[in-house]
């Protein structure tokens, strides 16, 4: 293990910056090997600070010159230590001029200014700007920027930065320049530049106030035919934000730029959003329905940041969910509204709940557990997590559940009125919601400060004499690192009561009528809610629409779950009843498999699945989701000691039995949900493809000559990537004799489409037959590289996280492989390496034999020389907690 201890940053230690920056002028002479960066900062002493002197952050920079108020500073006038430049004596008003050198071509971290495929790009969130020039690189320092870019015109004909283009022209020696001004104050993490050979699709879009805005989507030549959907999603986002929240685009232009080397999905730099190509490029030949949905959501997300993140930003990085949780909620609402139907909204909600269960709940129960607003960190990049994003979005959603849609809008309006162009805290958002609606939300703060997933325990008691139903709700929350004891949360619990006919009973609780659903507010450790006028013993439907991110414990019988699965008017709880039925059986099958007992699946469950499958009154997308079994990861979360091989065998057995017993119905639904004609990514068509392809997957789980022929035919005749991938996955997972030829054909057809080749690697990495030896073989393929995050994720991450039975091979080969790759990636890109390192968070939950091998792998990484702070923090917490 490394001997030096990385510094831990604590929220409680926040102090305001000693100096504020009013204006920033930046000049770039762009060259891949040596880029010259000149900056001029106008600064003033912050009256709210007691600190003396100026602190500027810089990383991997060569300082050429430093002047203060026109005078050159010499060594002794300033000091550089631990990537901080300190000027101890400075007047109240300062103009600081700085010249630095940086080498973008050598920057494999993709943080700061770097080169991808011969073009210049930037990524400055969270702390990338300090890799460009010395600066008070913190989100509460907001300034107006003017940027001059100079570069070779032939190599880099397109020069872009934030805001509005005010001047451009040619320079001697074949160079040219562009000058950009951003009229709004922003923190340094929102700075961006692009210097590249690109082409663009552009449109003029009329805003609701009558102004015309220029919209541009910039891509590399050859990809222009894949930009239509991103452009349409941008236009839809702009219009939706105008109509839903009264928020308008505040610039004359809005640009999206796609780059293939990018650590994140996208970045909301003011007016110049830089995107991973994965979330821009799409046509029916190369993109699946999931890709299209991802593009819509991410384009919406980054555009919505223009207000929730840019105009109002974070005081410090502990407040990250202030912008990310809120903006995830906004993009979720946008995507649901774009579908436009109740069933469509329900399906998007089900997908959100599945993500929470599969990714966020495990994080809450692991060594990296942290509150939505963390109290400390070593490396902020490690806290771009599902807790900050997805759980943060659930916290925002609970405001809307408690206050109603109109009340939530009132809170948003007050938030912007109070805090436009300010850097604020999560508490400021909560205060706006409370004040706008006259509500006391003091206890609600615990959702921000307490880690862990609350457990909601419920019990019901019906009194036929008094026609009452008493629902007792109790809450608790497991201990998490640094937080052994938790106080009660403020939990909105949406409840309905179903009668014997499956219909909602009218609700009266506390003397107030609620219609079919009542939102109960649990604020104590335990409370009793009494429903009156209940004329028959009901089946309670608890936590409708997943009204809070909690684990629900209620002693449902199989008959009650079947009743809910067949009739609940709330689609999320209807789906949830099916998941509970499946999970109970998966756990029993896993236990049987672990002990070598006979595995059996009851007819009752199969019949319930059949009814959902053939119910034409239900949306096809809902039926697909209802038929999808809990993942192996979700099953593991329910076990005290995880046995990955037993879980895999149990789930495969269940899939095979469903395929065998429902074979005729699956074939019928396959035929009934064909989508002939030109491809469309609309929700109805996508739902039909989803149901058809899950039918194919179940048929292939019980392979015979007919299912194999069906998969081969679909692969050969598919008119879109969704069907092509589904057929290929079916062939691979069923170990069809035609799988190898299909994989070869797929690669040959798409070898020049990087995003499709990512799919090619990912499908193989997650296949049940892929072991470590095969993954190593795939790494030797000429198309594989660790330097591209998308490619690394497609193979390494899909194997470690998407193929648990093989990754957790009893011989420990998966762990040895993991250690090698984490260390190799750390030398290139610590952010990506740290994400891979998270694959071993939960090592203590496995059998002693697996634990011993996992610990050895963790210790091997911990002992690596020059390990980054990113990976060190993850490994240290895994070994310590």
UniProtKB/TrEMBL annotation:
Keyword tags: Aminopeptidase, Hydrolase, Metal-binding, Metalloprotease, Protease, Zinc
InterPro entries in UniProt: Aminopeptidase_N-like_N, Aminopeptidase_N-like_N_sf, PepN_Ig-like_sf, Peptidase_M1, Peptidase_M1_dom, Peptidase_M1_pepN, Peptidase_M1_pepN_C, Peptidase_M1_pepN_C_sf
Keyword S-adenosyl-L-methionine: no
Domain of life, per lineage: Bacteria
Cofactor(s), by name: Zn(2+)
Positions of the Peptidase M1 membrane alanine aminopeptidase domain: 229-447
Stored SUPFAM superfamilies: Leukotriene A4 hydrolase N-terminal domain, Metalloproteases ('zincins'), catalytic domain
EC primary class: hydrolase
Domain called Peptidase M1 alanyl aminopeptidase C-terminal: residue spans: 558-879
E.C. number(s) listed in UniProt: 3.4.11.2
Domain Aminopeptidase N-like N-terminal: 89-190
A GO term for molecular function: alanyl aminopeptidase activity
Record has Metal-binding as a keyword: yes
Catalytic activity: Release of an N-terminal amino acid, Xaa-|-Yaa- from a peptide, amide or arylamide. Xaa is preferably Ala, but may be most amino acids including Pro (slow action). When a terminal hydrophobic residue is followed by a prolyl residue, the two may be released as an intact Xaa-Pro dipeptide
Family according to the record: Belongs to the peptidase M1 family.
Entry function: Aminopeptidase N is involved in the degradation of intracellular peptides generated by protein breakdown during normal growth as well as in response to nutrient starvation.
Protein's UniProt name: Aminopeptidase N
Species lineage: Bacteria, Pseudomonadati, Pseudomonadota, Betaproteobacteria, Burkholderiales
């Amino acid at each position: 293990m490394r001997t030096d201890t990385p510094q831990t940053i604590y929220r409680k230690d926040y102090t305001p910056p000693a100096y504020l920056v009013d204006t920033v002028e930046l000049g770039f002479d762009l060259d891949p090997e040596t880029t010259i960066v000149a900056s001029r900062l106008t600064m003033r002493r912050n009256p709210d600070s007691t600190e003396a002197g100026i602190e500027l952050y810089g990383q991997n920079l060569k300082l050429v010159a430093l002047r203060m108020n026109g005078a050159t500073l010499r060594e002794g006038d300033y000091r550089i230590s631990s990537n901080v430049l300190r000027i101890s004596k400075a007047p109240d008003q300062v103009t600081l001029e700085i010249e630095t050198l940086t080498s973008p071509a050598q920057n494999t971290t993709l943080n700061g200014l770097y080169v991808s495929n011969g073009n210049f790009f930037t990524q400055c969130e969270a702390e990338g700007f300090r890799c460009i020039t010395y600066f008070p690189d913190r989100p509460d320092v907001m300034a107006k920027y003017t940027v001059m870019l100079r570069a070779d015109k032939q190599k880099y004909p397109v020069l872009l930065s934030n805001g509005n283009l005010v001047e451009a022209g040619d320079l001697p020696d074949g160079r040219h320049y562009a000058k950009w001004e951003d009229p709004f104050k922003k923190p340094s993490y929102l700075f961006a530049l692009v210097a590249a050979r690109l082409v663009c699709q552009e449109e003029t879009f009329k805003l609701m106030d009558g102004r015309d805005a220029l919209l541009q989507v910039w891509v590399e030549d050859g990809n222009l035919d894949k930009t239509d959907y991103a452009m349409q999603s941008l236009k839809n986002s702009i219009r939706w934000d105008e109509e839903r929240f009264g928020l308008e685009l505040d610039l004359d232009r809005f640009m999206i730029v796609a780059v293939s080397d990018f650590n994140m999905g996208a970045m909301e730099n003011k007016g110049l959003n830089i995107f991973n190509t994965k979330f821009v490029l799409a046509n029916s030949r190369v993109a699946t329905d999931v890709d299209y949905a991802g593009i819509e959501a991410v384009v919406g997300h980054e555009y919505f940041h223009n207000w929730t993140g840019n105009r109002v930003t974070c005081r410090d990085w502990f407040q990250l969910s202030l912008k990310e949780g809120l903006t995830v909620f906004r993009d979720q609402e946008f995507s649901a509204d774009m579908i436009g139907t109740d069933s469509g909204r329900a399906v998007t909600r089900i997908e959100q709940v599945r993500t929470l269960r599969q990714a966020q709940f495990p994080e809450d129960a692991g060594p990296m557990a942290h509150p939505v607003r963390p109290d400390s960190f070593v490396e902020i990049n490690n806290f771009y997590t599902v807790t900050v994003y997805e759980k943060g979005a659930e916290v925002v959603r609970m405001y809307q559940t408690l206050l109603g849609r109109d009340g939530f809008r009132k809170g948003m309006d007050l938030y912007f009125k109070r805090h436009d162009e300010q850097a604020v805290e999560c508490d400021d958002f909560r205060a706006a919601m409370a004040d706008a609606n006259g509500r006391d939300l003091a206890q609600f703060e615990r959702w921000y400060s307490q880690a862990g997933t609350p457990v909601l325990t419920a019990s019901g008691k019906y009194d036929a004499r008094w026609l009452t139903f008493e629902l007792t709700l109790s809450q608790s929350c497991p201990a998490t690192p640094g937080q052994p004891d938790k106080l009660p949360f403020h939990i909105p619990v949406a409840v309905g009561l179903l009668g014997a006919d499956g219909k909602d009973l009218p609700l009266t609780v506390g003397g107030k009528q609620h219609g079919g659903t009542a939102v109960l507010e649990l604020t104590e450790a335990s409370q009793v809610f009494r429903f009156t006028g209940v004329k028959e013993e009901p089946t309670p439907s608890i936590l409708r629409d997943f009204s809070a991110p909690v684990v629900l414990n209620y002693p449902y019988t199989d008959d009650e779950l079947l009743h809910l699965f067949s009739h609940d008017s709330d689609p999320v709880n209807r789906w949830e009843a099916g998941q509970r039925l499946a999970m109970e059986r998966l756990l029993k099958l896993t236990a049987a498999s672990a002990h070598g007992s006979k595995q059996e699946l009851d007819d009752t469950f199969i019949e319930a699945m059949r009814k959902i499958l053939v119910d034409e009154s239900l949306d096809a997308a809902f039926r697909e989701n209802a038929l999808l079994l809990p993942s192996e990861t979700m099953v593991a979360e329910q076990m005290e000691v995880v046995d990955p091989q037993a879980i895999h065998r149990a789930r495969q057995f269940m899939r095979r039995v469903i395929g065998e017993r429902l074979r005729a119905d699956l074939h019928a639904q396959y035929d009934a949900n064909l989508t002939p004609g030109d491809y469309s990514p609309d929700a109805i068509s996508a739902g039909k493809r989803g149901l058809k392809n899950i039918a194919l997957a179940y048929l292939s789980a019980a392979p015979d000559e007919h299912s194999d022929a069906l998969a081969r035919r679909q692969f050969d005749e598919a008119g879109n990537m969704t069907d092509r991938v589904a057929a290929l996955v079916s062939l691979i997972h069923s170990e069809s004799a035609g799988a190898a030829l299909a994989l070869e054909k797929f690669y040959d057809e798409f070898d020049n489409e990087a995003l499709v080749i990512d799919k090619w690697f990912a499908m193989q990495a997650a296949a049940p037959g892929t072991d470590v030896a095969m993954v190593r073989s795939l790494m030797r393929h000429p198309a594989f590289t660790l330097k591209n995050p998308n490619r690394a994720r497609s193979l390494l991450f899909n194997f470690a996280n998407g193929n648990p039975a093989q990754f957790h091979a009893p011989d420990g080969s998966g762990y040895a492989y993991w250690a090698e790759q984490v260390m190799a990636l750390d030398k290139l890109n610590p952010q990506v390496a740290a994400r891979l390192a998270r694959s071993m968070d939960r090592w203590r939950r496995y059998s002693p034999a697996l634990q011993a091998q996992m610990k050895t792998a963790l210790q091997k990484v911990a002992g690596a020389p020059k390990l980054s702070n990113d990976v060190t923090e993850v490994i240290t917490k895994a070994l310590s907690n």
